[in-house]
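ESCALATION

Customer reports they have been waiting on this structure for their group meeting. Please prioritize. Original submission:
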Amino acid sequence: MNKIKDLILKIKFKMTEYFKAAKRILIDKFNQYYFSGSLVKCEMCNWEGSKFPSNNRCPKCRSLARTRLIPFSIKYFNTNSSIGNILHIAPNLSEYNFVKKNLEYTNYERLNISGKAKHINVIQDLTKMNITSGTYNQIIAWHVLEHIQDDQKAIREMYRVLKKGGELLLSVPIYPKNNHKTIEIPGLPRKKYKEVHGHFDHCRSCGLDYFKRFEREGFKTKTLNVSELDYSQIKKYGLSDSHTVWNFTK
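Update from on-call: job pushed to the front of the queue and completed.
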């Protein structure tokens, strides 16, 4: 009897998830046409509209402001000006599709500690990569290092696998907004992460000083604070003025 109940619950759960997904697809399709226009543009998928819907997701590729900052930053820093090898750290599907379709490269590797996502092709720990030094011309790491306990090791490893003159394009969430000093509490229980760092899976609150950890390893820094951009650019590309990007050069 219990097995039958469990089976019924599983079927109900799957049906609920199916209808949620179907509803989301229908809403996105509707929004693509309802908000069509030429005032805003998602550079992740090239959708153009009158505005981004109220949840600030692109109705075509479902990108968020932080994701749309990737193509903007690549143009801003001119980081993909020559063909080379790219290492992308833990990209989501939207990020992967953008790089695959829009950037020039000789080889494009996608690294994650887990291989659950089909688009990941290098399953390794960022803090101890089994990759030859000086392999990559460019590394992209987007909202990743706030999840890694020993981020200094990860930074050291990224520096190692970059070629001389190679670039690392990186962003982490600044929490709370405009926080100037990175906050890290050794031994903080995981159940306290959300209360202290604003997210259940963030082991630190990154501040605007976070770039100093990279300079300790030898990187040179260029900074993009979205809040310093012209408002027309922020609105046009659906960005958030709370975000910061660093372009590090080896």
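Sent to customer with the following note: The radius of gyration is 20 Å.
Escalation resolved.
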